[in-house]
Specification:
Number of helices: 3
Largest sheet: 3 strands, mixed
Shape: elongated
Number of strands: 3
C-alpha cells in the first residue's frame, strides 16, 4: 500500500514538473511565452535563415535587436523574423550594415 502511494506521489510530482517545463517553453498556444523563450526562438530563426548571429534582448515582449548584418535585405529579414515570433509586442533595432573594405 505504501509503495503504491509513493509511486502515485512520484507520478504526480513528475506531471507537475513537466507541466512547468511545458509552460516555460510556451508549448501551449494559450500561454504567454517568457522573454527568454522569445529571445531563444528569434535567435534560432535567424540562424536557420542563414543570417549572422545578432544580439537579441527581450523585456516584457519588447524586442531589441543589435549587431552587424551584411546588407539591407538581411536587416529587413532579421526584423521580419523577430516580428513573426509569438509573444513579440514590438521590435526596435540598432542593426548596422557591414561596410565593404
Amino acid at each position: 500500500m505504501k509503495r503504491g502511494l509513493s509511486c502515485l506521489l512520484c507520478a504526480a510530482l513528475a506531471v507537475c514538473i513537466l507541466q512547468g517545463c511545458k509552460s516555460w517553453t510556451g508549448a501551449k498556444t494559450h500561454e504567454k511565452l517568457t522573454d527568454r523563450a522569445i529571445a531563444a526562438e528569434i535567435r534560432a530563426k535567424i540562424l536557420e535563415a542563414g543570417l549572422p548571429p545578432i544580439r537579441v534582448f527581450v523585456l516584457e515582449g519588447r524586442v531589441t535587436l543589435s549587431g552587424i548584418v551584411p546588407k539591407e535585405e538581411a536587416k529587413e529579414r532579421v526584423i521580419a523574423l523577430a516580428k513573426s515570433v509569438r509573444g513579440v509586442a514590438s521590435v526596435s533595432e540598432d542593426l548596422a550594415i557591414e561596410k565593404l573594405r
